[in-house]
Amino acid sequence: MDLITRLLDPSVFFPLTIAMFFGIFVGAIPGLTATMAVALIIPVTYYMPPIAGLAMVLGVSFTAIFAGDIPATFLRIPGTPASGAATLDGFELSKKGKGSLALTLDLFCSALGGLIGVLLLILTAPPLAKFALKFTNFEYFWLGVFGLSMAAVLSKGNTIKGLISASLGLLISTIGIDVTTGYPRFTFRNAELMDGVSFIPAMIGLFGLSEVLKRVQLGRKVMEIPAISEKSRLNVRESLIAMWKHKFTIIRGALIGTFIGALPGAGADIAAWVSYGVEKNTSRDSSIGKGSLRGVIAPTSANNAALGGTWIPALVFGVPGDSITAIVLGAMLMYGLRPGPLIFTESKDLIQQLFGVAILVQILLIPIGWIGIKAFSIFLKLKAGIVLTSVVFFSIIGSYAMRNSFFDIYVMLVFGLIGYAFEKLDIPLAPMILGLILGRMIEDNLRVGLIKTKGNFLPFLTRPISLILFLLIVFTLIGPWIFSLFKKHASK
């Protein structure tokens, strides 16, 4: 009871609530990431007690990740990178008049996935963090390849075009300074390309601007934004029935999200894509990618659970799980806290309060997230021309805000045209985004690993975790083919 009293104290509860509303606002605007929201709120927490400041950080990060799914579902524009996978089925459901259904289920699964992630953080922080630290360049290389193998899963029935899309994403990811030689590649003497192509404006262009161009080209009738139908409103009872029906999808997504979140540098966006790919690869639901509830549940359960996972190495060993926890570690040092194994004894009360806040955030996410959905639905009731113009405006603002660079606006426009052309040619966009996100991770870890072994690739296969990841990749690629052979043989 004493812990509950502390959490509900106005000095903690009010800042937490304000931060969560701020997270909804930032997450729903394409390009304004959860990392940016945390970075913006850290200065506000400077003069607060540590638990109030950390509560604001937790609140803004969890809500921003969820809020990114709102424009992803209704406009096919991921609000945050972690919402990229949610565009695939969420938008298809929205086109069928089931956008409100998809988002309500999304909201409940985000809260439940986040709760599972937090509980796993509380129960298994030390052993999971120790396991995560066993990952070296060899394991991270295969983890990246495993994530990229999802491209084959995401383009079933269109594998060649999927490989073209993924290969182009990988090619674009090589633009910038070479990590080993320090030499600029494919920059064409443009200083803006030294840091590579930022995947956030690229993602906004591919998914958002291309959709606007397609609607404008198809004419007034098709320009209309998917409406939020009263019939599609999902009440609590129906939500619970749907979640019970797909309970294993929620649990699997949350476990995948927590595990990948615990791997330093992976993050919620990779967790969402991997969870979506695993669900599509293992499920017999052929409608995944065409408007399936499984396709909504899997990534949304994983990305919020991954946030809990990122705190595991951050708290236990002081190693950030992603960019958000990297900022948090700096804030903790600002508060006079030292992350590491001793924090669980030296700051036991604070850690207990932190875990309590993380659970409270998942509970508050449901009413605050619902308010965010309703607020966004009011915006969608405007005329299609106003909505589409606003989409372009916020796409430009979101692309610029990431690095305060006009060049990123041009990147967004170019990728918008690429996305429009890909749609015309029936080339999937998701593999390209995977290539962009994972390309640098794959290349850097491959080259550093080869430098360590003086060009010997054998350690990439002989280390136990590397071998397990390699076998998982093989299973991902040939598993569906073997399964279909068995199915044909059984039907004879």
How would you describe this protein?
The structure is a single chain. This protein has 492 residues and is mainly alpha-helical. A hairpin with a 6-residue loop joins strand 1 and strand 2. The chain has a two-stranded antiparallel ribbon. The longest helix is centred in the N-terminal third of the chain and has 34 residues. It starts with a helix and ends with a helix. Helices cover 75% and strands 1% of the residues. It is globular. The chain has one domain. The mean pLDDT is 78.
Summarize, please.
The chain is built from 23 helices and two strands. The chain is mostly helical.
Characteristics of this structure?
globular; 23 helices; about 500 residues; 2 strands; about 0% strand; mainly alpha
| End-to-end gap | 64 Å
How many DSSP helices?
A: 23
Mean pLDDT: 78
Major beta sheet summary: 2 strands, antiparallel
Q: Helicity, in percent?
A: over 70%
* Strand order, sheet with most strands: 1-2
Number of domains: 1
Q: List the helices and strands in order.
A: HHHHHHHHHEEHHHHHHHHHHHHHH
Structural class: mainly alpha
Radius of gyration: 22 Å
Categorize the overall geometry.
Answer: globular
Task: Enumerate the spans where pLDDT stays under 50 for 5 or more consecutive residues.
Answer: none
Number of strands: 2
What share of residues are in beta strands?
under 5%
